[in-house]
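User: I need a structural model of SMYD3 methyltransferase from Nyctibius bracteatus for a docking pre-check later this week. Nothing fancy, just the predicted structure tokens so I can convert them on my end. Input:
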Amino acid sequence: FPLFLQVTCNCFTISNGEMQDVGVGLYPSMSLLNHSCDPNCVIVFEGYQLLLRSVREIQIGEEVINLSSLPVIFLPCFSSLLHILMLLFLSSNIFVSINQDAKKLAGDEHAWKEVKDAVNEVRYPKSKAGWEQILARCQNLLSSNRGRLPDTNIYQLKMLDCAMDACVNLESWEEALYYGSRTLGPYRLYYSGFHPLRAVQLMRVGKLQYSQDMFPQALETLKQAYDIMKVTHGTDHSLMQALMEIKEQCEAIMRTQ
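Assistant: Understood. Predicted structure tokens for SMYD3 methyltransferase:
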């Protein structure tokens, strides 16, 4: 049990290019970093390689502090004693975030609790039929809760993300763009400043706008993603290379119109 706790508290979630969890890994030197909701650096991955990147100027003698290990919008989901103990270990600032997030549970309480239960039950399927079931559930809840929950409600936001993922996997690009566009305002609220999750979300929406021939809108969205990602990922990162490629394609199309 002590070994389990040591691994749990010190491991890093390895994410792919779209910041989706693909595994965990132990990086001993990085485990020495403290965490904060107002960090001076962030961690991103290139395959299994962990990259620590500064997001602002770090003064001589200043502690290098990593972004909180737990995404802001997921914090209220943790209620077990083990998770609370982990949060205590990780950062004293986490509880400030929990209190702030509690204010974001706007809307009808019965409605967001129903959405919370639904999103916590989602297991990403490997079949088209499975994605169709998830999308139908998302559509039903989003429709029935129209006017009862704002998109800034953290569980409503997770539901929109889930619906967007389902549409992408079902190649329903127009509908994916609809849900993705609704997430941008809440993402700006929760992930202000240089945050890799916001950059990736902007890139995803920009690509969807590009696929719908919405080139001016796509270029603006991709530029916003670029401004963040050049800091959080750097120009050599494969995701940044992909972003620059589609951004240049969009610029070329705009020049010919």
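Before docking, keep this in mind: Residues 10 and 29 are 10 Å apart (CA to CA).
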